[in-house]
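Sequence in, structure out. Go.
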Amino acid sequence: MEKVTCREFLVAQSGWGAILAATACGTGAVFCFVKWKHSRKIHTKIQKAVAKREQSKLCVENALLQFRKQHPEAKSAPVLSLSLTDLSKQLKEGSLTPATVLHTYMEKALEVTKELNCVTEFLLESRDQLQEVEKYREGLLYGIPISIKDNVACQGHDTSCGVSIKLDCPEKEDSVLVQVLKRQGAIPFVKTNIPQGLLNYDCCNPIFGQSLNPHNQKKTPGGSSGGEGALIGGGGSLLGIGTDIGGSIRIPASFCGICGLKPTGGRLSNHGLAGCLPGQKSVTTSVGPMARDVDSLALFMRAVLSEDMFLLDPCVPPIPFNNEVYSSSKTLRIGYYDTDGYLEPSPSMRRAVLETKALLEKAGHTLVPFTLPRIVYALPELIVKGILADGGATLLHFLREEMIDPSLKPQLITYRIPRIVKKIISLILKPLFPRISTTYEALNGVSSVQDLWKQHTEVADYCKEYITQWKSLGLDVMLCPALGPAFEFGYPGKLSVAASYTILYNLLNFPAGVVPVSKVTEQDEEELKHYKGYYGDPWDKLFKEAVTGCQGLPVAVQCVALPWQEELCLRFMKEVESLTQGTRKN
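Output:
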């Protein structure tokens, strides 16, 4: 067809037709111009953020050259080989200086992020902090470099959450947690990557791109604290801060072969945490530590559960860390399950639980089978309907003018479907794929404030039911699967259902941690070939695809305690870590 310009088109019209045609052409042109101008603005903001990151890398490289010239005797390998506990001891004794440790980890983080794309920015003021760190010599984290997830506020830096609308909005002050860490002598030195909007367990966004798994660069490190998982798993940090609304600390820890703790929501201050679901209360967000070993997690908790935390945020219960509980050697009564009954675990997930159970029994602990109550009801009705009580409107509002990352598109497609269409889809799918059907219905959220209050009541009732069952068995802690092994890129956005193993403990608001215990074996891969799943629906098929080809990758278990019992949870994690020391290397 021959192309016709607006002018030629108008000439061919007469009277009102010409006026209407002019209006249509003009409106279309204005719309296209506005859209082009906005896209250009987003592109410019992203370019600026990336340039800022690259500039921070250059500054670090120059600082490292300068430091090496001034201190040729400083060696990296001995520093990098130390555990957090040993490093802290040498810093306190003075056999290592904070400057040597900081520059060593800046150099290693630079090396790791060139491979894995996990750092969004180096915090150049960390070198200035060296001038003041001696004031905090008595702090439990004196001289320890610490990595910070993107959405945790650091003064003068963006908390982007992977969306351009939050760029060029530097924070006016540090989050309470960062303030406390500094008073304990810690030195925040990098910020780390996250998925766009945070509500995804991949680690990719249009600003900083895709982070990679340190054990296999064809796999995701998990999310949303995926940058932390990759950096710590790659050796570029000893200790980091993550946040967790559905497994965002525990899934990256599992995928990257490190340890992570999701505390009870409110045990640590959440002042200064950014997100894209403000106001959501049904499923609790927590902030917590990620590290190479359990002792490091415990040291972090011991350091931050201090008077500084309780003074800066009076809403945090003034409960100091109970070292007596963490150090106890009392035998435990441990509940366990190797499946949640909703998503069939991968062979390595199930094997990890059963092998760990056997080791715990051999060590003298009592293991008691546990069946999750009404999980088929809880996941769609309490979790999906709770997180997306508004039908996804708040998240979609944050992303309304964004370039959408491919890893997030599958989720957003379902959120954007009109309510009535979701209901129709749910009805059509019900006889064929009941699990998918109930999820589509739940994606509509609630329809009124009255329904929201009812939903909150149902959450409270479910928590009571779960705790009653726990207490009736006389349990101290729980052993259960951690999602894994690491997925292929792009699958997390198609498989929100797989977060069922972790998000349950955000709903219940129980402390839960992850400990690596093994690696995927050839036998695991062979058994996976026969994986069918519980429903035989597209989600089961996708899960099998997501975890195929993972031989040699880390496998973890999840350790859980009742609310406000982080010390007991960590003590249990430490026991698992000690007993599985040999199997982790196989």
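Check: The two ends are 67 Å apart (CA to CA). DSSP finds 24 helices and 13 strands in the chain.
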